[in-house]
């Protein structure tokens, strides 16, 4: 099928990310079905308008995506399937992508930046690691070459996240005329932890990002950690002249409030109210079963609450949505099983004929998540480390009666929301239990006022503005 988008047209604004704004599924009849995604990048590219000459470069992630690329014109997908956006999808060899994505990005870089290693046993940077690192380099090179081909003279390129840390330098070597930005959506590890990486790899990662004109982060803390790593690994100063920026992604209030009052959300609210039971308070968490989200300790803190404050028994329910993540990795499957085990143990120990202390759901459902947001008396967000954590920002925006927020000081959102949250050390079970008790005990009026202030801070930089701010900071021109 030929693309209607014009393969020869060069782009003035480019975005690069592992996952694109559209994905494809192959039906039983062999037909392809396109499914559009959402999020800050989609909102941002839409905000600059169709006349801006933009293109999104992403990877084909499955068989459906690869089939779509093979039928496309030069990898550019048909506009009618992408919401009018120009999207170039790269059919990178499946084994190369798997080694770059799972072997390096998710099993090494994610673990370093979230400080997740059990260091007596891991990491082990051996010959297999070096082989996978070569795939990570090849994956980044494929993006750099595609961006170089698609970009107009002097175009602005916004490269996203830890998957593509090497691409800015590679692209700079191919196209020195471009204005290149890199944005990190994760935390950045402090130097002592970052230097678990082999010295040459640490230098290559930093040098890759320093190929950009501007490197940006979700919080000042992560930006400062990156600069500290540059000084520790590469020496004083940043000789490339790369500018450092901070853009704290906020919640999309208009979208969330409108979506949260659709009929399917109302239906889920009725179902959840029945599960919780009349007159009971709800502690809500919504997470992927990602190791950094700290779900198991959150459950243990809730158990400690029931032990220390028996007056809450049969008066509160912990609604925990733990959606499976990265189940192709054994450590994630084991963690998901552990979350289920702890929840079952709490229910067996404390549950009664008409009270289930933990209501755990593992099937992802956005409408149900929004229903839980609206019902929440307390939101529990206790990650070990998190670049931002949008759940902490979304719940106060959507909550019907206002909710209290129990928030880890290791979440990027703490920088903006800490003043009105009950802040916890994510490793401290007893301290988190105390915070849950204080949050549950909050008077309705104060809870509503806190929630209002949290919502205001949470929506200060909505996704479209977040994207445009980065673009303006890179180009020096208002978008």
Features:
479 residues; seven-stranded parallel β-sheet; 15 strands; six-stranded parallel β-sheet
Folded structure, characterized:
With 479 residues, this protein is of the alpha/beta class. Helix content is 45%, strand content 17%. The chain is built from 18 helices and 15 strands. The strands form 3 sheets. A 7-stranded parallel beta sheet has the order 5-4-1-6-7-8-9, sandwiched between helices. It has a 6-stranded parallel beta sheet with strand order 12-11-10-13-14-15, with helices on both faces. It has a two-stranded antiparallel ribbon with strand order 2-3. Strand 6, helix 5 and strand 7 form a beta-alpha-beta unit. Helix 3 crosses helix 4. The radius of gyration is 23 Å and the shape is globular.
Give the SSE map:
Layout: E1 11-16, E2 22-26, E3 32-36, H1 40-47, E4 54-59, H2 63-71, E5 87-90, H3 94-113, H4 127-150, E6 151-160, H5 167-174, E7 179-184, H6 191-194, H7 199-209, E8 214-217, H8 220-234, E9 243-246, H9 253-259, H10 263-276, E10 281-288, H11 295-308, E11 316-323, H12 330-350, E12 358-361, H13 366-375, E13 378-381, H14 391-398, E14 404-408, H15 414-417, E15 422-424, H16 429-440, H17 444-458, H18 463-475
Helix pairs in contact: 1-18, 3-4, 4-5, 7-8, 10-13, 11-12, 11-16, 14-17
């Amino acid at each position: 099928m030929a693309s209607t988008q014009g393969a020869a047209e060069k782009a003035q604004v480019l975005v690069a990310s592992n996952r694109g704004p559209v994905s494809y599924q192959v039906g039983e009849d062999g037909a392809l079905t396109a499914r559009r995604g959402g999020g800050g990048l989609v909102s941002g590219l839409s905000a600059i308008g169709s006349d801006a000459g933009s293109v999104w470069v992403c990877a084909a992630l499955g068989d459906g995506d690869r089939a779509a690329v093979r039928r496309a014109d030069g990898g550019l997908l048909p506009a009618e399937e992408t919401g009018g956006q120009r999207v170039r999808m790269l059919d990178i060899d499946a084994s190369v992508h798997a080694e770059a994505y799972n072997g390096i990005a998710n099993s090494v870089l994610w673990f370093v930046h979230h400080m997740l290693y059990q260091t007596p046993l891991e990491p082990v940077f051996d010959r297999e690691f070096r082989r996978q690192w070569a795939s990570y380099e090849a994956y980044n090179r494929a993006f750099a070459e595609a961006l170089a081909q698609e970009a107009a003279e002097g175009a602005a390129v916004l490269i996203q996240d830890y998957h593509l840390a090497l691409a800015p330098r590679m692209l700079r070597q191919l196209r020195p005329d471009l204005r290149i930005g890199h944005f990190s959506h994760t935390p950045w590890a402090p130097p002592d932890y970052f230097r678990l990486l082999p010295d040459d790899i640490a230098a290559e990662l930093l040098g890759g990002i320093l190929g950009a004109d501007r490197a940006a982060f979700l919080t000042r803390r992560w930006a400062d950690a990156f600069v500290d790593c540059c000084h520790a690994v590469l020496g004083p100063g940043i000789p490339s002249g790369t500018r450092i920026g901070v853009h704290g992604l906020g919640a999309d209030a208009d979208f969330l409030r409108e979506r949260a009052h659709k009929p399917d959300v109302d239906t889920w609210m009725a179902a959840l109210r029945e599960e919780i039971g009349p007159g009971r308070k709800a502690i809500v968490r919504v997470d992927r079963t990602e190791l950094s989200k700290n779900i198991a300790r959150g459950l243990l803190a809730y158990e400690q609450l029931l032990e220390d404050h028996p007056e809450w028994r049969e008066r509160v329910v912990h609604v925990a949505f733990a959606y499976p993540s990265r189940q192709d990795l054994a450590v994630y499957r084991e963690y998901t099983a552990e979350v289920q085990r702890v929840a079952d143990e709490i229910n067996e120990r404390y549950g009664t004929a008409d009270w289930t202390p933990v209501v755990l759901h593992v099937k992802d459902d956005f409408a149900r998540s929004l229903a839980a947001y609206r019902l929440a008396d307390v939101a529990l967000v206790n990650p070990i480390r998190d670049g931002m954590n949008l759940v902490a920002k979304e719940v106060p925006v959507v909550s019907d009666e206002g909710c209290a927020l129990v928030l880890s000081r290791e979440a990027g959102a703490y920088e903006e929301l800490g003043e009105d949250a009950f802040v916890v050390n994510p490793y401290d079970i007893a301290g988190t239990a105390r915070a849950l008790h204080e949050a549950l005990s909050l008077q309705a009026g104060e809870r509503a006022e806190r929630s209002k202030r949290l919502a205001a801070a949470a929506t200060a930089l909505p996704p479209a503005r977040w994207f445009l701010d980065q673009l303006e900071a890179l180009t020096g021109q208002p978008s």
